[in-house]
Amino acid sequence: MNIQISAPASQSSRIRNSVFLQKVTVAEEAVKVIGHGDTVAVSGFASAGTPKAIIPALVGRIHAARAAGSNFTIDLLTGASVSTETERMLAEVDGIALRMPYQAESTARQKINAGRMDYVDIHLSHVAQQVWEGYYGPVDVAVVEVAGITETGELIPSASVGNNKTWLDVAEKVILEVNSWVPDAMDGIHDIYYGTALPPHRRPIELTDVEDRIGQPHYRVDPGKVIAVVETNAPDSASPLTAPDAVSEAIAAHVLEFFDNEVRRGRLPENTLLPLQAGIGNVANAVLGGLDRGPYRGLTCYSEVIQDGMLHLIKHGTVRFASATALALSEAGIAELTSNIDFYREHIRLRPQEISNHPEVVRRLGIIAMNGMLEADIYGNVNSTHVMGTKIMNGIGGSGDFARNGYLSMFLSPSTAKNGAISSIVPMTPHVDHTEHDTQVVVTEQGLADLRGLSPRRRSRVIIERCAHPEFRPLLTDYVERAQAAPGAAGHTPHLLGEAFSFHQRYLATGTMRTFH
Amino acid sequence: MNIQISAPASQSSRIRNSVFLQKVTVAEEAVKVIGHGDTVAVSGFASAGTPKAIIPALVGRIHAARAAGSNFTIDLLTGASVSTETERMLAEVDGIALRMPYQAESTARQKINAGRMDYVDIHLSHVAQQVWEGYYGPVDVAVVEVAGITETGELIPSASVGNNKTWLDVAEKVILEVNSWVPDAMDGIHDIYYGTALPPHRRPIELTDVEDRIGQPHYRVDPGKVIAVVETNAPDSASPLTAPDAVSEAIAAHVLEFFDNEVRRGRLPENTLLPLQAGIGNVANAVLGGLDRGPYRGLTCYSEVIQDGMLHLIKHGTVRFASATALALSEAGIAELTSNIDFYREHIRLRPQEISNHPEVVRRLGIIAMNGMLEADIYGNVNSTHVMGTKIMNGIGGSGDFARNGYLSMFLSPSTAKNGAISSIVPMTPHVDHTEHDTQVVVTEQGLADLRGLSPRRRSRVIIERCAHPEFRPLLTDYVERAQAAPGAAGHTPHLLGEAFSFHQRYLATGTMRTFH
């Protein structure tokens, strides 16, 4: 193969190394290196950093192969979700045999739930090490978006880091997308750590403050592996942004009151608390908004993604420093960041996800983990992933990385869904992503259940009283009282196995968990 | 209070500091400091290091209070289990209001399952930090067994470390039991790390090899807090030892074959593998015995307890070094250790359990975690604690510390229990201690299921085929096939909610999970 032949002349000043310049080509040429059955590792985390040109070209190749009567699927490894359009176009052509580690798109979800796409839903901190350990076989091709290539042949990361360092290290062949839409001045915001290893060669990760720089600003890559460089100038898809609603504001208020109490009791540092991690979405945004109105100054965040709300907090000084692995901004957020990039670059660090989610660092920093959930049971077991126990929604993502090893593990959700038809507090969750051992605080708009130091029976009282919607409280209380009274069978964690999923079964049969209408 | 008045003259050369010598008294005097409602933190981990004199004296005090018409209970915090007799005598007098973090004794278990004792079943690595964080209120009294007191007033640990360092640090008052039965020459086997802190003051734990010494040999204590020193000369209770049976040997054979394959595929270092962690019991002993007959030399162990089998491995050179937080030896094992203590002291390190089980260290060292279980479901969710979902057996102990952050997380069990009436592979576990995300390998005497990189549907096939007992395989296959065929409802993780616990319900109704007799 001699793809240089068809390469267009580079129009870009982003490729400042002649070896790489010679490899410039178009996406349609580059994807010829990807074959049926290949394992393809792709950049992208949330809405940031997905390759813009290669995947559409690959989809074209899959179409052509199908038209010619051949099958064509890949195993797709990413950081977390990739852009919605990218996930959808690959799912629509049935182009993915195996997907790992996270998705959040409706077409892919349908294929997975229909058993037509294998999906391996793992902790985001585990991805790099599991690929290094060979659980997914060799990685044939990496497709990585970068902002530029330096004179020395290093790669300037774009708006997400994710597993890109690992993909560049392990892949047999590499396709680079150089996206000149990414502001030049973002160079320097990244901290790419090259100190990880497989055991027995691991050393301490010397990160003790959220803003510590422990790596280098750029990725390394063996230029001999780079088989094509494709130039693009295309924006990241914007993350949708919805204003916090009354329910989110109520949840946030309970969280903020809890923080105030913890500070008063000397269990959290005043002003600065401890580094915050918050999942994506309305509730997280409402909590961040609430912090901005509170007494806190100089907060830190150690999380996966940076959303619009974080930019405001940084600008106001409420947040001193935020570490993440990706930006996930709205169009307005992207404009705010790019027009003030010199300021934000001094207050944001983007790291590989094996570091942003690393158990060692999460434990050391003492993260306050705030993650959403689908439902919790009356004992504090949490389901983050499976609707009615069987259908995947998105995936566990990084929630387990933070909940398991953090200082405080909080799970947040409205107390009901589907206009009140679904209770997010149930007798037993039909899928468990976070066990009772890892759940310390549950919050709904109804209130906050502090489960620390409580036995299961006490937990059930607190969760039902504080968190369940009043319309479901009698049903839950009735369940647990009868379970506790079961002759000779109640046990440490009382349950009635024949009724443990009665809420879910009722919903499947009648469309509501209510017994009243 | 002036307990020195009744103090007997010390007979022991174990107390080499005059301040402490003046505090020597008898147990009956010492326990007067413990009052109803107190939180009492006690030394002890497995069968080693439980105080021998104070608890019986405390039980006497509880008896007397009850006879006088008063209630008398304590909240009891320990390392893990304490000696069986100790746990039993306190449970028999209903002396415990709250128990944390682990128990393994039948009377206590009955009280807990009857709702008469609050039990908080948490990860062993969390105990020290949660007590420091104040989840259990102030610790009124610590009762700690030591082997001696040095000239400078430091304390020589005995046969378990557990949380003793933390108890001595946080308790308002301290009672020491100086047990001269512990061999003098054990001094030096311990490594007490004083570098932990609450966030935001945590630093990296600079332990990169199982044998690294990062602390000091002795505990520190503020002598002003020590209100009594009681002398004893009493052996640890011996851990029962049963010879591996055919089922355990078969499980071990599958594990060893798996290790061989991993070495061959370059995924584990040959000869030395990676540091091993094994739970207590027959299966663990069989695995260790198998390693002794294999090609391995210079292995290391990083675990909670050291059992007899480990001494043999060390003596043969199969194991180069073993780190743990406690010894749990049979009478023969105790004799072997004490008569060769100078040898074993060079190959064993006993650490605080916050270090033996620390997520940072477990992840860095790349532990191979081998833990027992009650049951696994067809997707790899594991129940380690609750019989039929409600009745506590023991507790999660350290299994989650190792499974969640280790390199390989393996769960081991015979495929059946109760003479074949119970299948340890079930459609859904009615309690989850380790989620599918944290279970990589399941092993029974039937075979080994390697779940790495597999989606749930693939996992179910492998677990049923490899691990389920042949008599239960058709039932499990029938369940999963019907779940997969459920119209519109199958999902990523197919289940039939109305039948998910049919195995357990059948057992509760008929005494067996079988449908055939």
From the structure above, extract its key features.
ActCoA_hydro_N (chains A, B); Glutaconate Coenzyme A-transferase; acetate CoA-transferase activity (chains A, B); alpha/beta; AcetylCoA_hyd_C_sf (chains A, B); 18 helices; acetyl-CoA hydrolase activity (chains A, B); nine-stranded mixed sheet; 517 residues; five-stranded mixed sheet; homodimer
CATH topology of the largest domain in chain A: Glutaconate Coenzyme A-transferase
What do we call the CATH homologous superfamily of the largest domain in chain A?
Acetyl-CoA hydrolase/transferase C-terminal domain
Number of strands of chain A: 26
Between the first and last Cα atoms of chain A, what is the distance in angstroms?
Answer: 68 Å
Share of helical residues of chain A: 25-40%
User: How big is the Rg of chain A?
Assistant: 24 Å
- The structural domain count of chain A equals 2
Please describe the biggest sheet of chain A, giving its number of strands, its sense, and whether it closes into a barrel.
9 strands, mixed
Runs of chain A in which pLDDT lies below 50 for 5 or more consecutive residues are 1-7
Strand content of chain A: 15-25%
Per the principal axes of the C-alpha atoms, what is the gross shape of chain A?
Answer: globular
Oligomer: homodimer
Structural class of chain A: alpha/beta
Report the CATH C-level class of the largest domain in chain A: Alpha Beta
